[in-house]
Write a structure and sequence with these properties.
The chain is mainly α. It contains six helices and no strands.
Length: 110
């Protein structure tokens, strides 16, 4: 995953976003984005998916496994591709809700 940080930085800069702006959109801290870009830390699967969706690139591209930016679903229709993307968005939303519930539960128990 040596390429992850440099690819993330390049994609962020292409969209003319600051680390803080990207962090706000992903629900993480600026320090986390900085750690990703310097390869000091790597994202969870959920964040990796969110980054892929946000930047419209494949996870393989972000991880340096492919130079092809987008995954092509050769045998799927446009409607099927849209459904897959919607499912991913729904999973991400559910994960964010579960994370928030866990944080709230920790605050209430302590």
């Amino acid at each position: 995953m040596l390429y992850f940080g440099s690819k993330l930085r390049a994609l962020r800069q292409e969209k003319e976003l600051t680390q803080q702006q990207l962090a706000d959109r992903l629900g993480v801290t600026k320090a986390t984005i900085s750690a990703y870009e310097t390869n000091a830390k790597y994202p969870s699967v959920e964040v990796l998916i969110a980054l892929s969706i946000f930047f419209h690139v494949s996870a393989d591209y972000l991880l340096g496994l492919s130079e092809q930016r987008q995954t092509e679903y050769v045998h799927l229709t446009d409607e099927q591709n849209q459904l897959i993307n919607e499912l991913i968005r729904q999973f991400l939303s559910l994960n964010q809700k579960n994370t928030q519930r866990n944080l709230d539960a920790k605050k209430n128990s302590g």
